[in-house]
TrEMBL record:
Ranges for domain RNA polymerase sigma factor 70 region 4 type: 108-160
RNA polymerase sigma-70 region domain segment(s): 13-76
GO MF term (any one): DNA binding
Keyword annotations from UniProtKB, A to Z: Sigma factor, Transcription, Transcription regulation
Keyword ATP-binding among record annotations: no
PANTHER family recorded: RNA POLYMERASE ECF-TYPE SIGMA FACTO (PTHR43133), RNA POLYMERASE SIGMA FACTOR FECI-RELATED (PTHR43133:SF63)
Lineage: Bacteria, Pseudomonadati, Pseudomonadota, Alphaproteobacteria, Sphingomonadales
Pfam families: Sigma70_r2, Sigma70_r4_2
Name under which the protein is recorded: RNA polymerase sigma-70 factor (ECF subfamily)
Length: 171
């Protein structure tokens, strides 16, 4: 810039500064307006076309509007959507489909464990758990002692516990 153009820009700055400051104050408030005025004049100066302009006031006004538009776009992009989290209302709920799949997997592991038991152990276990028979009733029905019923129930429970533990670790 030449000395004459620098003086012309300084005079233009003094005459347009207040108008531009009022323009920004109405739109963004007192705190941010001075920074936006400076940015608008800096854009005009960086363009290097001040000396060739016929109507620098119109260019300055258009540049100020564009600055506000750019700022609004940037603010809109940087804003994230925030949803309040209410522990009581928005508690995590495991989907039913997941529960059904896990239940089916567990039933398969349970069935495999039952199939690996001896016939007598499986029968004792089923009589106790499914028919709700007591150990004494099972002993009489099968013709064995109460201690043998306990032994078969312990075997069954150990086998099931191992199978379900392996399933829960694998799943």
């Amino acid at each position: 810039m030449t000395r004459d153009s620098t003086a012309a820009f300084a005079a233009f700055y003094r005459t347009e500064h207040e108008r531009l400051l009022r323009f920004f104050r109405r739109r963004v408030g007192r705190d941010e307006a001075p920074d936006l005025v400076q940015e608008t004049f800096a854009r005009l100066l960086r363009s290097g076309a001040f000396e060739r302009m016929e109507n620098p006031q119109a260019y300055l006004t258009r540049s100020a509007r564009n600055l506000l538009i750019d700022r609004a776009r940037r603010d809109k992009q940087s804003q994230g959507v925030v949803f309040p989290f209410d522990e009581g209302c928005d508690a995590h709920v495991c989907p039913e489909q997941t529960w059904r799949i896990e239940e089916a997997d567990m039933r398969r592991a349970y069935g495999r464990a039952l199939r690996t038991m001896s016939r007598r152990t499986r029968r004792v276990f089923m009589m106790h758990r499914m028919r709700r028979m007591t150990y004494t009733e099972i002993a009489k029905h099968l013709g064995i002692g109460d201690k043998r019923v306990q032994h078969h129930m312990n075997l069954a429970l150990v086998r099931l516990r191992r199978a379900l533990t392996a399933w829960s670790v694998a799943g």
